[in-house]
Structures are given as C-alpha cells and as structure tokens.
Amino acid sequence: YALNLPSDPEFVNFNFPRRLKAAFDGPSTWDVATCRNPFEIYEFYVDIEWHFCRYLHNNKGLSWVSSLYLSNAIKEFLNHIPKGYRPKQTFTFDELFVEEYICRRCQNIFWLNGIMVCSILKSIYYFADYLVEHEIIDISMATKIKQSCVNLFVKSRDSIDTTNAARMLFKRSEDLFGGE
Questions:
Q1: What is the distance between the alpha carbons of residues 130 and 116, in angstroms, rounded to a whole number?
Q2: What is the mean pLDDT of residues 71-88?
Q3: How far is CA 146 from CA 85, 154, 175, in A?
Q4: Per-position DSSP letters for the chain, written without gaps between them
Q5: Most confidently modeled of 9-13, 79-83, 166-170?
Q6: Structural contact between residues 23 and 50, judged by C-beta atoms closer than 8 angstroms
Q7: Are 68 and 53 in contact (CB under 8 A)?
Q8: Taking each helix axis from N to C terminus, what angle separates 64-78 and 38-60, rounded to the nearest 10 degrees?
Q9: Taking 70 as the threshold, does the pLDDT of residue 2 lie above it?
C-alpha cells in the first residue's frame, strides 16, 4: 500500500533538523545566485518554503496543514526552472510567467484544476506580504504582485470546470483574497 512506504532514518535525521532550522531562522541568504548547482537551488527554495510555512501559521493564522500546503505551492512555483537554466532573479512574479505556470501545472484534459489555481494564487498573494516583512520587496511591488493574482483569478475563472469546488467557493476575488 502507498501509506506503507519505507522510511530512511538517515534521511530523516539529516533533513528534519535542517528544515526546522530553516523554519525558525529563515534562509541563510535571499540571493539564489549564491547557489552553485540545481540541488543547491532546490534546497534554497525548500528553506524558504519552511520559513514561509511558519510565517503563514504565525502571521496569517493558518493551520499547520494549510500553511504547509500553501508553502509547498510556493516552493513548486519557485523551483519551476527550465532544465539547463539558472534563475536570473531570486523571485519572479511577472503576471505572464505566473499565468503560463498555472496553465502548465493546473491543466486537466479540458479545464484548469480550480483548487490548484486558487492555491497557487493565494500562496503568491501571501508570499508578497512575507517578502515585504523581510524587506525583500517594497509595498508597491507587493501591491503589483497581489493585483496580478486578482487579475489571474478573474481571467482563469472561465477556464475552471463548472463542477469544480473552487468555482463554487470563490465566485469573486474577494472570496479568495479577502477584502485586503
């Protein structure tokens, strides 16, 4: 069965303390250019994932499960790097880039998976606040990122399956992003 996967104690003993350190201390650097290879780039964004998870729990009041889900969505987005390329910027939230990512990541046969779309957009929306708090971007850039999320939500609504729960739960952008 799938739930009876083997657990490697060496892997757990190596990774768990590192992840906890990242959750509490944050990344050792905010510059992806310091990473020398794809593994280090991946680990760089994993550290940010765990720190962002703690931020979501402590600052946004989300449960640990919701925090981990949204922080995982950010990690997957940030690690979406074409093979053979290195990121030029640590964080890229260009609206077209996000839209292309959503179209690739969330597409079912005929529709977009609405829950995945909303999760990605909500995680990016919150991530903008996280970056402001850590003085990585300013409030005007965060506002642009958040507006892009709203724009993409509105744009994607017609591409989400009419029977998808996201379409029923989030009829307006305010339903997903709140009144911020």
A1: 21
A2: 87
A3: 27, 13, 14
A4: -TT-----HHHHHHHHHHHHHHHHH--S-S-GGG--SHHHHHHHHHHHHHHHHHHHHHHH---HHHHHHHHHHHHHHHT---TT---SSS----HHHHHHHHHHHHB-SSSB-HHHHHHHHHHHHHHHHHHHHTTSS-HHHHHHHHHHHHHHHHHHGGGB-TTSHHHHH-SSHHHHHTT-
A5: 79-83
A6: yes
A7: yes
A8: 150
A9: no
Q: Which two tokens stand for residue 90?
A: 């640590």
What is the chain's length?
180
Which residue type sits at 9? P
For the segment 87-101, the average pLDDT, to the nearest whole number, is: 90
Tokens of 16: 């768990």
Number of other CB atoms surrounding residue 140 within 10 Å = 9
CA angle 90, 93, 96 (to 5 degrees): 135
Q: Cα(65)–Cα(119) distance, rounded to whole angstroms?
A: 13
